[in-house]
Amino acid sequence: MVRRAVVIGSGGGIGAALARRLAASAGFDMVHALSRHPPPNEGPGPLRPGYIDIGAPDSIAAAAAAIGGPLELVLIATGLLHEGEHRPERALKALDAAWLAGQFQINAIGPALVLRHFAPLLAGDRRAIIAALSARVGSISDNRLGGWYGYRASKAALNMIVRTAAIELARVRPAAICVGLHPGTVDTGLSRPFRSGVPAARRFTPEAAADRLLRVLDGLDARATGRCFAWDGSEVPP
């Protein structure tokens, strides 16, 4: 049996670290590392670079068709918090329709379509996982500071998509696990402008974040499906 994993968003800091960790482990024979700018295939070894654009539905469908199943692990390591002149909105007056739509496209719609095309490829006769990087700020009950409208709302939408997909998936693949993951504050381009107030002990390198997230996944069983877990294994409230 060939054990295969897929990392979507392997061009980002956390995604790249996850792909490297999985490729270096003994748990997988093949790791498909998908991104918009995949590097050339380096030859022998389990890492298999490939193309995907989380913002392009046809690209997601084509990547799933090219890879096929069965898969033991699918990780969606994509996200959009800021870009160019756009920063997280601190007030209603800062809301912009196009920017909101763009955040929903990358943070919620793209992952939803990954679930559509990749969840059916999960192994049906054994434990298999599909997980998406979410964020604690996507928790509605934990929102006490306000602000960051588009990012909060799109990650909250992602959490609902994960929950709903988990219910459907459990009917046909009862051993499957579908969860969200909160990686904490990681030293990547996404969080770098906003980490000055975070204590050093709570800021992680991409490699440390990848190790923590993979340990969390290793400890889950089918009872965890549909929920969101932080880097330390605690559950993020809905």
TrEMBL record:
InterPro entries (UniProt xref): Fungal_SecMetab_SDRs, NAD(P)-bd_dom_sf, SDR_fam
A Pfam family per the record: adh_short
Top-level taxon of the source organism: Bacteria
Matches recorded under PANTHER family: NAD(P)-BINDING ROSSMANN-FOLD SUPERFAMILY PROTEIN, SHORT-CHAIN DEHYDROGENASE/REDUCTASE
Protein name per its UniProtKB record: SDR family NAD(P)-dependent oxidoreductase
